Amino acid sequence: MMLDRLVADMQAWFAAALPGHGIYALMAFAFIAGLARGFSGFGAALIFIPLGGAIVGPKLVSPILLVIDGIATPGLIPPAWRNANRSEVFVMAAGAALGVPVGTALLALLDPTLLRWSITVIAICLLALLVSGWRYQGAPSAPLSSGVGLIAGLFSGAVQLGGPPVVAYWLGGKSDFTRVRANVVLYFSISSVFSAISYYIGGLFVPAVFALTAVILPSYALGLFGGSKLFGLAEERTFRIAC
């Protein structure tokens, strides 16, 4: 009887927390986003945030991506730690520590409609930056790295879209593609901790976030696994074009 009651309570909780439509679309978006993240080390937010936000709203979609990515990606961290330029990553993460709380405040306080359109505009602009082929060609420096981290942290806190500034900065340098990917993975493992703390303080981890995480996580993890396998087959030129 107690088990039946527990099951019934769980079913009622899921029914109340999950949206009435769009679950299968969210699962498909999560799979494609995971594929991009597993291959390049970034890109999940550019896919999942605008598309998923159109279904469940911006105040849910950002913490959902943060949670599913945090659960699914720990396996990427050990090789990233070995291959990354850790000093560069830590300097950039210091900038993110300042930017993430500001972005989170914007996510918590802005009107949802305004936020949704802002996400769309930001995503299009950041995608255009990557597609344009522009990359920073100079030598990395501590002030510039921390500045990029500040901007990326602001975008991460607000809409989980911190990847493109980081990638445009690191992908144009002389580092090989294995190090670039490792830098990106390690940086986001650190900045995600800042985001999780900020989201918790901002009250963004509502029950619907965890209900949707339970449904979407398997699709994202499958995409992440497939993307990681594809990275192992890629040459440097292929990796840079795909990014």
Description:
The structure is a single chain. The chain is mostly helical and 243 residues long. It has one domain (2-242). The chain is 82% helix and 0% strand. It has helices at residues 2-17, 23-40, 44-56, 58-72, 77-83, 86-109, 112-131, 142-159, 163-171, 177-201, 207-233, 236-242. Helix 9 (163-171) packs antiparallel against helix 10.
Low-confidence stretches: none
| Average pLDDT number | 82
Number of domains: 1
Tell me how many strands there are: 0
Task: Give me the Rg, rounded.
Answer: 18 Å
Q: Summarize the main sheet.
A: none
* Tally of DSSP helical segments: 12
End-to-end distance: 53 Å
Protein name: Probable membrane transporter protein
Family: Belongs to the 4-toluene sulfonate uptake permease (TSUP) (TC 2.A.102) family.
Transmembrane segments: 12-32, 39-57, 89-110, 117-136, 148-172, 184-202, 208-231
InterPro entries: TM_pro_TauE-like (IPR002781), TSUP (IPR052017)
Task: Give the SSE map.
Layout: H1 2-17, H2 23-40, H3 44-56, H4 58-72, H5 77-83, H6 86-109, H7 112-131, H8 142-159, H9 163-171, H10 177-201, H11 207-233, H12 236-242
Helix pairs in contact: 1-11, 2-3, 2-11, 3-4, 3-7, 4-10, 4-11, 5-10, 6-8, 6-10, 7-9, 8-9, 9-10
